[in-house]
Amino acid sequence: MFQEMENFEFSTELLPGLPEELGLECLSRLPCTAHRLASRVCHRWRDLLQSPDFYYHRKKLGYTQKVACLVLSFNGGTVNGPKKPGVSPNYGIAVFDSVSQRWDRLPVYRYPNGLPLFCHLASCEGKLVVMGGWDPVSYDPVTDVFIYDFMTQQWRQGKDMPSKRSFFAIGACLGGVFIAGGHDENKNALRSAWVYDLRKDEWSQLGEMSEERDECEGVVIEEDEFWVVSGYRTESQGQFDGSADVYGLKSGQWRRVEGVWEPGRCPRSCVGMGKDGKLVNWAELSPAVRVGACGISLGGRVLVTGSGYQGGPHGYYMVEMKEGQHSKLEKLNVPDEFSGFVQSGCYAEI
Amino acid sequence: MGSTSTKIKLRTSDQKVFEVEKAVAVQSQTIKYIYENGCPDSVIHVHSVSGDILSKILDYCKKHVNSAAGKEDISPEELYEWDANFVKVDQNTLFDLILAANCLKIESLLDLTCQTVANMIKGKRPEEIRTTFNIKNDYTIEAEEAVRRENKWAFDMLGGVGTMVIEELADDTMSKCVTNAKSRVCVIAANQIVMMRSISKLANKKSIDVYKQPQNPTTPRIKESVKQINVGTGFIELFFHFKCKM
Lengths: 350, 246
What we know:
The complex is a heterodimer.
Chain A: H1 20-28, H2 35-38, H3 43-50, H4 52-61, E1 66-73, E2 91-97, E3 102-105, E4 120-124, E5 127-131, E6 145-149, E7 154-157, E8 169-173, E9 176-180, E10 193-197, E11 202-206, E12 217-221, E13 225-229, E14 244-248, E15 254-257, E16 271-273, E17 279-281, E18 291-298, E19 301-307, E20 315-322, E21 325-326, E22 330-331, E23 342-349
Antiparallel strand pairs in A: 1-2, 1-23, 2-3, 4-5, 5-6, 6-7, 8-9, 9-10, 10-11, 12-13, 13-14, 14-15, 16-17, 18-19, 19-20, 20-21, 20-22
Chain B: E1 7-12, E2 17-21, H1 22-25, H2 29-37, E3 44-46, H3 51-69, H4 76-86, H5 91-104, H6 107-121, H7 126-133, H8 141-150, E4 153-156, E5 163-166, H9 171-180, E6 184-189, E7 192-197, E8 208-212, E9 222-226, E10 228-231, E11 236-239
Parallel strand pairs in B: 1-3
Antiparallel strand pairs in B: 1-2, 4-5, 6-7, 7-8, 8-9, 10-11
Helix pairs in contact in B: 5-6
Organism (chain A): Gossypium raimondii (Peruvian cotton)
Pfam families (chain A): F-box (PF00646), Kelch_KLHDC2_KLHL20_DRC7 (PF24681)
Protein name (chain A): F-box domain-containing protein
């Protein structure tokens, strides 16, 4: 006597033969790289794999992984600019998986000359957001917003930024991308802040910060607060402040904190969270990354890039962070293609 | 009665009785709970599990208990391999193990078996996944075509020489190549057929020979070099770096 698995004509079970919650247990363990093909199996699978709930479920169970996304120059630039005079650096996005030590390059969308210079990168819910920057040829600020979905491996265009803004703070969390500060077309430092809703494709304005912050840096802490660190006012060009404005994601209110950053130090790509809620400057981890530093937290470890001196070669290092104490920098061997100057980066949890 | 030699009796859905050491049986949180809260001397019924499945599960529990307690000299790698062999069963048995591990609340076994299913999905094309798991395809042909079009990649050539449109490998194309030439795979790129040598484990291989199929089959093939290959899920996604003659 043999038993046949019941063959429902219009079965909507995720995995026929298993109850829904166990089918979900199996699909939750599917790595992100397999999602794209799996979503073509049937509509139920596609709807599940694309849903934010599924993303958060995987995240809660610990099946997501953090990868570093870097805006880097693919024709070898240095901190000072491109290797060949007159050649504009061609910026693209590299993705580094620290577990498999694998490097990938994302296809660049709609930017034939490379990504805009000084564009900003942020990530949440398995998506990567590229905003703003300057056109690499004309140096005009752009208001473009592009979103890359790691699951479908596709780009889409989002609603433009509400106004031209450069060198602002950016951070993403819980489906929202927060921007604050920077400067406008006339180099006036800004104190305004906005948030972009990824799902609704809409912008809304937030309250203003306590002061104008040009060239500030944004950090999201514990999915709870958006920190806008340092920066300077219009009349104090280049005089980086030591304070920060902190936006509470639940309260919707700003609060100001003093003395969290060394005045005079540029915070761009350098701000991380250390012990006891104190901010860390990644450029200070080692003289090897003193110039052009960029740090990306990947859970307990930090990827740090930078050079020892102006015009020097760019190095990649991994640092273990435990309770604010960091280990020695461990140099990484990086394929030639990916060893150009890193402008900025963020981590993506996929 | 020493706790190390306490035995527990388990009766399955098909009336088979198993007598096992307590340490092994309480790997199941369900059995542990019943034992600690019910009457420890009588038989515990595991209604939803058959004798065959319970027998396998008890093997698993025993192996893991012994290894953890140091009773068996087995390294983590060897245990990992043992687990991998343990789940090399037919799909019906695998699903029965999942159901039983869930019902008996044996977390590590549930994790192992569900991960096995996930691994069975990974690396398969959608049609293969459907066949393996008996899932009905509710995509219309038009919808499938639309998805296929959506998945075209447009690449910026390094140096901005031109763009290339790469389509996914179509099933019939692949089989054509496999029969025509030894383990070669075709990619339809911008209406030109680009052939390349295919090796199943290509991960992070830096360069590979690519032959461009000329329009006239009698002219010799042109070799280009591919800078980087990413092995995608079940098929090969290509990043090209070469000057294309368009």
